[in-house]
Amino acid sequence: MQTSTALPPLVKPAEGGTSERPEADRELVFSVSDVDVHYGLSHAVTGVTFDIGANEVTAIIGPSGCGKSTLLRCFNRMNDLVPGARVGGTILYKGHDVYGDGVNATEVRRRIGMVFQKPNPFPKSIYDNVAFGPRLNGMKKGLDDLVEKSLTSAALWDEVKDKLNRSGLDLSGGQQQRLCIARAIAVEPDVILMDEPCSALDPIATARIEDLMDELKRDYTIVVVTHNMQQAARVSDMTAFMSVDVKEEGRTGHLVEFGRTEQIFTHPSDPRTEGYITGRFG
Fold first, then answer.
1. Regarding predicted confidence, which is higher, 15 or 76?
2. pLDDT tens digits, one per residue of 70-104
3. pLDDT tens, 19-56?
4. Any residues with CB less than 8 A from the CB of 47 and at least 6 apart, and which?
5. In this structure, what DSSP letter does residue 85 have?
6. 3-class DSSP state for residue 6?
7. Residue 118: Cβ-neighbour burial (10 angstroms; 0-12, 13-18, 19+)
8. Cβ count within 10 A of residue 32
9. What is the dihedral of CA 92, 222, 65, 41, to 10 degrees?
């Protein structure tokens, strides 16, 4: 982990972009340019370029092995924790290079939270799950209010307010995932990354999480990886479609198309996108 200073005050990114960046006048949170990811000698992702706007839900879709989750983990430097992983290209977060010299990876992850595919509450009480991050950051006062606010934002407060001392592991799968969202919210991030957050949930719990995403984007920018195209169509404002090249040396994911979700699903500009969405391949 780098020992230098945290991210500086947030600034607007520089103007500019490519034809793959629609509506460039919107407020941008991420500008992704020519991002490549290697795991050792394996080239996992190549040449990804697109922008992510504030208070939007951006979905990343594509067949298995195309690098969706690998790309997602680049946004908050989770790939730093993978031995042999190397990230090339540029990811600007509100104008600042996430991988630049002097950037503290821990601060990046505080501002850019993550919710994983399988609910992973800590073996602690519901209260302590939510309070864990703030306590780690040195917060001692106002924890009760923060826990209530976070659980309310995650649409879980009314279900657990009378059992905050019970283990988070006692909750249902959908409740556990909302608890993990509350835990992510508690450290007051700017962005929430979600890696297939509903893949382990039943349809009712999935619907609750989808409704929650729609509510959360009022206050947060959300990037979600999903294998469920119907879910992407329902919840996202923008969609990135990735595909994969299979060669002797391995599989390499790349961005095929990026645009407004309605356009991607009704009038895709690339036949590979249409083929995937209509189920002809992938």
1. 76
2. 999 999 999 999 999 999 999 999 999 999 999 99
3. 344 455 679 999 999 999 999 989 999 999 999 999 99
4. 34, 35, 36, 89, 254, 255
5. E
6. coil
7. middle
8. 23
9. 30
pTM, two decimals, is 0.88
Q: Which of 240, 231, 228 is nearest to 279 (CA)?
A: 228
Question: Once rounded to an integer, what is the mean pLDDT over residues 233-260?
Answer: 93
Determine whether domain 28-277 maps to CATH 3.40.50.300: yes
**CA distance linking residue 245 with residue 45, whole number of Å:** 10
- Using DSSP's 3-state secondary structure scheme, residue 227 falls into coil
Q: Which residue has the tokens 């993550």?
A: 114
CA–CA gap between residue 118 and residue 101 (Å, rounded): 33
Tokens read off for 218? 């009022």
36 closest CA partner among 238, 240, 252: 252
Average pLDDT for residues 165-183, to the nearest whole number? Answer: 96
Helices 143-153 + 126-136 axis angle, to 10: 120
